[in-house]
Automatic annotation (TrEMBL):
UniProt GO MF annotations: SNARE binding
Gene transcribed to yield this protein: VPS50
Domain of life: Eukaryota
Organism name: Ursus maritimus (Polar bear)
Region entry Disordered, spans: 343-362
Start and end residues of each Syndetin C-terminal domain: 496-716
Pfam families recorded: Syndetin_C, Vps54_N
UniProt feature coiled coil, ranges: 209-236
A Gene Ontology cellular-component term: cytosol
Protein name: VPS50 subunit of EARP/GARPII complex
Amino acid sequence: LQRLKDHLPPESLGDLGAIESLRVPGKEEFRELREQPSDPQAEQELINSIEQVYFSTDSFDIVKYELEKLPPVLNLQELEEYRDKLKQQQAAVSKKVADLILEKQPAYVKELERVTSLQTGLQLAAVICTNGRRHLNIAKEGFTQASLGLLANQRKRQLLIGLLKSLRTIKTLQRTDVRLSEMLEEEDYPGAIQLCLECQKAASTFKHYSCISELNSKLQDTLEQIEEQLDVALSKICKNFDINHYTKVQQAYRLLGKTQTAMDQLHMHFTQAIHNTVFQVVLGYVELCSGNTDTKFQKLQYKDLCTHVTPDSYIPCLADLCKALWEVMLSYYRTMEWHEKHDNEDTTSASEGSNMETLKSRKKSDYSLNKVNAPILTNTTLNVIRLVGKYMQMMNILKPIAFDVIHFMSQLFDYYLYAIYTFFGRNDSLESTGLGLSSSRLRTTLNRIQESLIDMEVSADPSATLTAAEERKEKVPSPHLSHLVVLTSGDTLYGVFLAEQFEFLQPHLDAVMPAVKKPFLQQFYSQTVSTASELRKPIYWIVAGKAIDYEQMLLLMANVKWDVKEIMSQHNIYVDALLKEFEQFNRRLNEVSKRVRIPLPVSNILWEHCIRLANRTIVEGYANVKKCSNEGRALMQLDFQQFLMKLEKLTDIRPIPDKEFVETYIKAYYLTENDMERWIKEHREYSTKQLTNLVNVCLGSHINKKARQKLLAAIDDIDRPKR
């Protein structure tokens, strides 16, 4: 209003009373406005009639705007009307604002409460964070650093405890020699060996300590010293057998794994004891009779020394000699008694624990049939023997036709021999092995039988010549195996016995044979009967080929990594798998022997074939290697030595067949170029593939390309005559 006064002329100031009533209504007036009856449509029209400029920004000056709108000459009535209009518009707007405020008041109150609650929560969170930070600082200073310190000290404590334990072990190891000496003085040989072996194992664990390096060699020297004392203790058995003493000695040798060495040494000691005993007895009597102790008698041989015994001293000397030898023989008898008792116990425990042709135990019982020399017989063999018996009776009665009977008997034997080979021994793959399983004499005999007796071309052609028909009358069809016989099973074995019976019958046949026909009989025995035993090799080769899963071994060897960078101390698993195959073969052979006796020559051939095939499979597996290092070749040697060591416990076959075949192939890796070329020309027993692999894979690392091509050309020259 003051601004309006300033702009109006003096004469108009008297009319400002009406304008002063234009003011904003208060809170009570708002309530009154809402309580007044209203027409919403009229109120909305009033609001719509308000000029748009009133809804502009806050910087808009309403008073100035209204004053500028006043006319030059003011009319009180018009002003009052305009004032009333503005008041109505103001009242409508105020009422509208009041309605909106009251309408939104609950949401406003609710939102205000939420904001207040949020503010309270934020304040609480701030307090929690502040307290958390304070507690974390306390934990950092008072707990974490102390705990980490405790953990570090505990770790140091554990390390020091381990170090102390190692030091105590090392101290014990270094004092072991004193205890070993005491045990040797007490003749506790098994305990000494056990302690020494345990110390060696512990020393290998602590080999990273420099103080242990010399201890290993010292323990090895001690072990050798124990073996020497064992030998001395073993020699004492020969004259004064003590069961407790001998048991300790045998236990010691068993711990060393040298029981066979102990037996060999024991035999030598008994021989030496016999010689020394009889020599000393005779020498004493010779010196007594001669009246002097000339040393020349001590240099004489025992046979020459005996010539100096006088007739008067002969009987006393012989009596003392018998007494001395009786002591040796008594010790020998007690030693044998000890072995019979303990070997039986070992055999019983071994049979309970496992089923492991050895051959030594099998030799005593000859495969579970005590001492009965029972042959391997089939129904066909028995029938042939029966027929031979009948034919011999006919020869005794009808001697004029004895030659014809023997001739047909020889044909029957020829046919049976040929049938056995056809069924069980014929295999084209055998000849390709180059092992000479079928001897030239056997092949000659079989070819003769085939040409003279077997009708290989059965023909119904009526136009065949009369001569050919007559010749075919003397021949028989080729034999066929019964469908009841299954040759694909590896659980059964077959044998030949008929030839031995014909050898027993030779004197009887010779007695009834006319003199002029005896050369035929001798020829039959020399050319046919004597070659029958040679069927064993090709026949049992097939059995051996099915007894062991050689293909599985090749697959296992193919998975081995041979290009290792360090020398391994553990053999590969294919060795264990192969040994399990041999153990299973051993068990199957035991089962068969319970039903059919297996003669020792047959078992030896079976074992020889299986071992030979296994060794050749090992070489074939090595020849399949794609990459191989020096350490890998050493691993091959380790694997093969492990195989030999375990195999020798399963069989008494000595030497191991084809052992050199594998070892020579492995060692060829270390040959120089010139030596390798000469080696290839000298060792034609290896296949082209095996030689080529040796050059490409094994030697490729230390020879150049030109040298390799030269060696491959040498291999090709060797292989060309075969093609």
